[in-house]
Each structure stands twice: as C-alpha cells, then as structure tokens.
Amino acid sequence: MKKMLLDMLKSTGRWPEKPVISLVGAGGKTTCAYLLAEELAGEGKKVLVTTTTHMEHPNFLGRNGAIDQSPEEIAAALEKSPIVTAGTSGLGGMKMRALPEEVFGAVLPYFDAAVIEADGSKRHPFKVPASHEPVIRKETTHIMILAGMPAMGRPLCRVCFRMEEAEKLLLETENRGPAEDGRDGSLAERILTPGLAGRLLEAGYVQPLKRQFPDAAQMILLNQTEDAAAVEELQKNTSVPVFGRPSDPVRANGRIHLILLAAGFSRRFGENKLLFELDGRPMYQYPMEIFRTLKAVRRDIASVCVVSQYARILETAGEYGFCPAENRESAEGISSSLKLGIKKSREADKTDGTEEHFYCFFVADQPHLRADTVNRFLDGFLRSGKKIGCLASGDTTGNPVIFHESYVPELMGLKGDTGGKKVLKRHPEEVFLCDVGEELQLHDYDSRQSLEDRRIKGNAE
Fold first, then answer.
1. Does domain 254-456 have CATH number 3.90.550.10?
2. What does the record list as coiled-coil region(s) (predicted)?
C-alpha cells in the first residue's frame, strides 16, 4: 500500500499533538498542502491552511476561506468545514498573502494542525532558494521539501527557479570540469538528475534549515513519480528521508467537446467583427487555430463544433475538418448558439456512452488567447475533479468555460442573450478557476474603438 503524505511525515520522527507543517521547494506545494489538510481532517483534526509568502486565493480553489479576518472570525469559519484557508488579500485577487504574525499566533490555538505554504517558485518544478528563503514560522514541527519529477532529465535553466542560486551552489561544491550528470562546462545547461537534485536540495534547503530549525523533522518529496530508482538516487545524495508520490489521477475517460460560438451580430462594432482582419487574419480564425493545435496534442477531444450564421465561417470550419452548425435563430441570442452547439456535438459523438463528457465554449472575438493556455486550463480542470471551469485574471472570469455533462439540462434551459456564465454563477462551489497569466488573453473586442485602443497601447509598449 502506498504511503499517504501524513504517513510519510509521521515516519520522520516524533509526531506532536498539534503538528505545524511547512511546505517548501517547488513542484506541487498547493496540491500537497490540501492533500495533507484533508488527511489531517480525516483524523478528526481542525486544520488551518495558510502561507508565509503567497498562494492561490481559496475562492478560486473552491475552498472554505477567511481572508482579512480576525482570529475569532477565522475560527468561526470552522462551522462550515474542518479545513479553513486564511490569509490576507493579495495583489489582483488571484492570490492570498500571509497572515500577520500576531494574527497567526492568536488563531493557532483554535486549530489542531496547521499546513503552511512557505516558499514561492512561480510555477517552476524545481527550486534552489535565495538566502532569505524559505519563510518558516518558528512554530513549525515538520518541513516537507518538494521537487517535481517532470523537472528531471531537463536542463537546469529551463526548470529551476532561482537559477543563479543553483549556479552558486554548484560552483561552491564542485570542481569544474567533465564529470557525471551530463556536465558539459555550462552550468545552466546541466541536466537535472535525481542525484544532482539531491545535492542541490541538501545544500540549499536541508543543511540551512537544520541549522535554523534543529527540532523540526525534514523530508523530501519527489512529486509526480512512482520511479523507485529515481527516489533511491535522490536519497543517496541527501541526509533526510525521501519519498515519491505518483501523479494526480486525470479523468482517463473524459471526452471534451470544443464549441465555438460565432453567430453574433457585432452591433457595437459597426461591421462584422468576426470577419474583421487582425494582423492579417480574420478574428474568427484565431480560435480555429487553437482547436487545430489541441486536436493534434490531445486524445480527449471528442468533437469540434463551430456555430455561426455566416457562410464564410461555416465554410472555413469545414475546411479545418470541424463540424459546421448553421444557426438560423441567431436573433434569439447567444443561448440559441450554445444549445445548438451541444446538440450538434452530441450528434457528432461516436463513443459507446460510457465516458464522461465535457462541453467547452469559446467566443470568436478573443484573438490573444493561446493554445498552451487552453491546454493547461483543460489539464488543470480535469485534475481538479470540479464540474465547471473557466479562465480568470484577478476578479475577472473569462472564456473558455467548460461544463460537465450533468449541467446540460441547465444549459439547454437558457433563454435569450444569456450564456453559460449564468449557470456558472449558480454553482460557485463547483468552479475551477485557472489563472490566465496575461490578462490580455481574456480580452475581447466589442467595438472598433476598443480595437484601436489596444493597438495604441501595444505600440506604446
């Protein structure tokens, strides 16, 4: 039987009545923080989840949150769930920041355990910390150091956050010249192996943290792997226990239907904006290029449907190999296109009916959206276990929006110029929000003026 995260931590030494666990490094800290919290809650504990740096806002994770609250208000949130995520408002609303030290100290007695994300890695799968990192609370009893298995076998410069710190450690601890690990004289191009990762984590995290927190038990988690040999190689190069954790399961039988809603009248634009050329390409063609890329890289795309009232768009959809769906009822609003897209997608599906189905809606006037962003969004959504998902930036939600098939009756019940966002707002607890990264990717063009403003701003930048 595979060890759970809690079993791993308990095996590292004395287990206190009220554990305070700090997660550092890179490669899945937030995911592991909530897995730990859920395992602790399963033992009947009341669990505080927080950060000393920043982490995803609980609202965007569907979590029970208490942001900018007093210790008493944070404790009161336990009435909703045994796991409470607490912090202060972060810039842009997508992240939360640390609790003030006095608030953390005051709220801790209300809980039986605390799980703290205590390091930042900017989505890199590996990290070597700077001298001021990580930020560990003095109450910490256990430190879990993470490294992502997807970083292994790749050049350090492509996977390591704080590459300059990695270079310093390598120069300090090794004699330059040909040696193991594929070293070719370029530190940045060194291939990260589990052995090299172990040496960097030992020098960057383990030894400094032993000096600063001698009573805190430490372990390393090689995340997203079942490779026992990789775990063993890393273990040979560090002085603390090393464990492996397999990848999160993805809905293996999920089937995704991509639906482009391209039947609007563009009244505010002054002409058909979907046919308007931007950088030499009509607006509607941008999402079609994304669809073509997704079909090439993903096996779970069941169908692609383009809904429009315009012959040129429908003809192009056919040329791309997509299913064109003529909407003769466009005057009834976006709900007519949405429902037609679902109907045609179901007709195009050739599976035996045993798979889960998801309907992902795109708009045709969002030309800055990128295929890699959509691919990341779909992966994150499938792993989340949620049934609704959309892209977001700060407090702004945007397209695409994806729905599990269980929401089809609600979607088919929409009327007039009402889209799927109405269904999304009814079920906030079921929504997975994916940070788009660049807000520009969410931008759509309602008027010629908005397009000109964007061009002027782009030229100025």
1. yes
2. none
